[in-house]
TrEMBL record:
Biological source species: Eiseniibacteriota bacterium
Record InterPro entries: FAD/NAD-bd_sf, FAD/NAD-binding_dom, Fd--NADP_Rdtase_type_2, Ferredoxin-NADP_redctase_2
Cofactors named for this entry: FAD
Name listed for the protein in its UniProt record: Ferredoxin--NADP reductase
EC top class, as a word: oxidoreductase
Keywords linked to the UniProt accession: FAD, Flavoprotein, NADP, Oxidoreductase
Residues that bind FAD: D63, Q70, Y75, V115, F150, D310
UniProt superkingdom: Bacteria
Family that this chain belongs to: Belongs to the ferredoxin--NADP reductase type 2 family.
Amino acid sequence: MTRPFVGSTAALWYARVPLAARVNPGTHDRNVIWDTLIIGAGPAGLSAALFTRMRRMSTLLLDTAVAGGQLASLYPKKPVHDYPSYTYVMGEDLGKNFVDQANHMGAEIHEREHVTMIRRDDDQNLIRVTSTKEEYEARTVIVATGGGAFEPRKINKPGEAELKGKGLFYGMPDVEASKGKRVLIIGGGDSALESALSVKDVADVTMIHMLDKWQGMDTYVEEIQASKIRTMLETETVEIRGDGKVETVVVKNKKTEATQELPMDLVSINIGFLMDTKAIRSWGLELEGNQIKVDNIMNTNIKGVLSCGDIATYPGKYKLLITACSEGAAAANTAYIYVKQPKKFTVGELYAAPKEEGDTQPKASESPA
Ligand SMILES: Cc1cc2nc3c(=O)[nH]c(=O)nc-3n(C[C@H](O)[C@H](O)[C@H](O)COP(=O)(O)OP(=O)(O)OC[C@H]3O[C@@H](n4cnc5c(N)ncnc54)[C@H](O)[C@@H]3O)c2cc1C
C-alpha cells in the first residue's frame, strides 16, 4: 500500500500506524471522552472516520457486525460498477479498502458491538452511548447505521436450517465455488437476478420465483432472458434435501400444483433482508419512516448527534455508496466545527493532511493486538 505524504511530518504520523491489522481494537479506555463516536462501520461511518481522523479528532467506531457494512455483509461477491475511479470493483474488495483506510488513519474500530442507546447529557455537554459491551462518552455521535442490523430473510422450508453452510447460503454466490456446479437461485428481485447473472458463465443456473413476473430492473431481466439460465416463475420451494450437503430441491408450480425434484449442488436464497432499525426508535431522533431526518450538514434534531448514509434522509436523498461517503465527510466536518470550534474554517483546514500536533486519539490504540 502506498503511504502518502512521504517526507513530511505527516509521513511520520502515518508510519506509526501499523498497516497489517484488519481493524484497530484500541484501548477500551473507559475514561476517554471521544471527540466523535461513530455508530456503524459501513461506507458512511468509515468515510466519516477518515475525515475526523484527518482533523485529528479522537474517533471510535462501533459495529454490530463486521466493518465494511453492506459491502462486506450483503454483497461481497457482487461487482460494483458505479463507484468512481473503478471500472468495477468487487464488494468485498471495496469494503476492505474502506476499513484499511480508516484503520490506517488510526481510528479505533470495535466489531460485534451493538449500540442499544444514545442519550444527550446537557449538564456535561456530551452524549452517552450504551452498547452491548460498554458505556461511552462522546462530544459528538455520528449515527451511520445504514439499513440497520440486517439478517437475510429465510424461506422457512424443511432442510433450510440443516443445509445452511452445506451448499445453501444467502446472497450472492461465490463465482469460484460455483464453477461447474448446478446452482438454484431463489428469488425474483434485483439481488436474485444479479446473483444468477454473476454465475451464468461458470455454472448451470436455475431460478425460481413465487410471483408471475420478475421484480428487478428491466436490463437484468432482459439479460436473464437472453442467457441460458433456466427460469421458473410462480414456483415455490417445498423442501431442500441432502445428506450433509445440498443434493436436490423439491419445487412446486403454484398454478398446476405439480412438483418436481431438481438435482442441485448449491442453493442461493435472495428474498431480501430483515432490517432491524428498532434500536434507533428509542434514541429520541426525529424520524421520517425508518430514516433519521438531517439538515444539509447532517445535523439531527439532537445537539451533537449527526447522521449519514442510508439511515439519514433529506429531500433528494439517494441511497448509494458515493452519497454515503460524501455525507460521511460532511458529518465529520460538522462534528469537527462543533467539537474544535475553529475560529475560522478555512479551505486549508478542509483539505488538511493529518498532523501529530493536537491529535487526541488515545495513544495505546496505535498498537492493535
Ligand atoms: C445487494 C445490494 C447491492 C448494492 N449495490 C450497490 C451498488 O452497486 N452501488 C451503490 O452505490 N450502492 C449499492 N448498494 C447500496 C449501498 O451498499 C449502500 O447505499 C451503502 O452500503 C450505505 O452505506 P452505510 O454506511 O450508510 O450503511 P451500511 O453499509 O448498511 O453500514 C451500516 C453499518 O452499521 C452497522 N449497524 C447497524 N445498526 C447498528 C447498531 N445498532 N450498532 C452498531 N452497528 C450497527 C451495520 O452492521 C453495518 O455494518 C447495494 C445494496 C445492496 C443491498
